[in-house]
Amino acid sequence: MFLLHLFFALIMALFMTSIYKFVLRRQYPMPIIIFFVIVFLGAWLGGVWITPVGSSVWNVHWLPFFLASLIFALLLLGTRTQENRRRSRQQDKDLEKENVARAALGSFFWVLIFLLILGIIMHYLGVKVQSLPILPPVK
After folding, report:
1. Fewer beta carbons under 10 A from the terminal one: N or C of the chain?
2. Which of 35-39, 52-56, 99-103, 123-127 has the highest mean pLDDT?
3. Of 103, 105, 109, 120, nearest to 46 (Cα)?
4. Domain that holds residue 103
5. What is the pLDDT of residue 92?
6. Residue 30 placed within a domain
7. In a 10 Å sphere around its CB, with 0-12 CB exposed, 13-18 middle and 19+ buried, how is residue 29 labelled?
8. Burial, 11: exposed, middle or buried (Cβ in 10 Å; 0-12, 13-18, 19+)?
9. In this structure, how many other beta carbons lie within 10 angstroms of the beta carbon of residue 126?
10. What is the β-pairing status of strands 60-61 and 56-57?
């Protein structure tokens, strides 16, 4: 199942990345490889943790992979900002603020990647969400 899950997540991430590339046409808010990695890991995580629904192909329900990749792609598209082509007098201050924001987003990216991989590993190790000590017991 591991390889089939990997395959479906890869197909969904490639599909969403190709749509991302086609829709934005060289106006990417982030490198395509970052978009692909986040959507790929998000599709994989969502595909293995979301309750299986819909039809199955090779005994794998493909709809959770698609929905998870769609949600992650839309969230990443929502981070797109309009670039201001004109330069102002406060360019140095804005550049400093921009560098701080990029550092924060870089840190967020690595934390997100770590948590997505951790969630995938937890699924294949058989950890149940209800058995985690953080959550109250379900009655």
Report:
1. C
2. 35-39
3. 120
4. 2-79+94-128
5. 60
6. yes
7. middle
8. middle
9. 7
10. antiparallel
Residue 68 tokens read as: 């998870």
Tally the domains of the chain: 1
Give a yes or no: residue 138 inside a domain.
Answer: no
Measured between alpha carbons, how far is 93 from 79 in angstroms, rounded to an integer?
22
Residue 59 falls within a domain, yes or no?
yes
Q: Tell me, what's the pLDDT at 42?
A: 92
> pLDDT tens for residues 28-74?
667 788 889 999 999 988 888 877 777 778 888 888 889 999 998 88
> Residue 94: is its pLDDT beyond 70?
no
CA distance 107 to 90: 26
Tokens of 89: 């007098």
DSSP 54: S
Q: Which pLDDT tens digit goes with each residue over 66-85?
A: 999 999 888 888 776 555 44
Tokens 């951790």 found at: 118
